[in-house]
Structures are given as structure tokens and as C-alpha cells.
Amino acid sequence: RGLPLPEQQIQMASAGQPITIGTFTVTFLVSDHVPQSEWIDKATGMNEVVSEPLATPAWIHEWKEGESWTVLIEHAAGTILLQGSAGFREGQLTGYEADLALLSSVGLFRQSDEFQQAYFRNTASATDADTVIPIHWDDFFAPLEGQSTPPLPWLIEHMNASFSALQQAALEENRTFVVVRPGERFYFGNGEAVQAAEAVDSN
User: What pTM was estimated for this model as a whole?
Assistant: First the structure.
């Protein structure tokens, strides 16, 4: 609404209720954010909402984290699980299936082995995804520069350690772990995923 976007183009999602968009079916499930410092939760407005239309640019305190969501995107070619934060709810995805799991890796290195295992078990394992791709690891404080986009800085994230947690879990369950850099194409369909070397213009 702050763009402003016409009301007829806005559709509110309800947890567990599929939405049909063209040839896609999208289901939103309320999830949890990866555990982090209390001051970060406060600064980002965790579990708060933007109550009035927000015009950009805006100060960080004006944005609100709200809730974290698990998103399932279904198509005739296959189903994608999108886990935007490395948190989870136990048993949330029981009964759902996915071919490809896009799992946030940020913050995993700070969590215990038990948490890391439970995260994977309640996402990729729960949906029996064949392929796992880490997401949300690139530096979103920097411009998007295709494959040259850097990871989050060391003070915030230890990317290799977080990747290692996901990769090891995937290896133990015979699932494919693939890192896709910004700007790379990744072809997916009918349960098969193929990474292509060609780049995509990020502009």
C-alpha cells in the first residue's frame, strides 16, 4: 500500500490455505525465526506489524519483521519448499512433500548441533526434498552484483560453518546440496534440478 499498490492486487495469505496464482499453488505456514539476540529482535520489530502504509525509503525502525513463514510453491513441474529463516516449528510440514528445499542458512553456525539437526529434520527431511539449496546468505547490505555479490560479513555470519551444517545433514540422508550464487540459473522440473553455468543479468 505504500508503493502504492492497487487494493485489487493485494491478497492476504491465511496460514495453511492454498492460494492459486496462474499455474502455481502457494501455501503459507507460520514458522519461527532463527534464534538471535534480543536487541536484533527489537531493532527489526520481531512479531510487530506495519499498521499504516509505509512509503520508502524508511528508517529501519519503521520496518517490522512480523512473522516468519514457511512457503510451499506447487507446480506441475514440481514443488519447492522456501524456508526464509533458519527457524522451524516441530512437525509443521508433516504431510507435505517437496522436490527442492530452499533453506536459509544464516545463523545456523550459532546454534547447537541438536538445533541444526532438528532444523533439517523439520524442513528438507520432513518434505523428502531431493535437493537442498542454501539461501539468505548473501550480503543484503551491499548492492546485488550477480555472482560477485559477497556473503554476509564475518562479524554477522560464518557462512562456511552454516553451509557445512546443511551439507553434512544432506550427505547423511543422501540428498543433493548445491550452492547457487546470485545471478546463476538453476533449472528445475519434474523432480530434477540442474545448475547452469550461464549467468543472469541482476540489473
Answer: 0.88
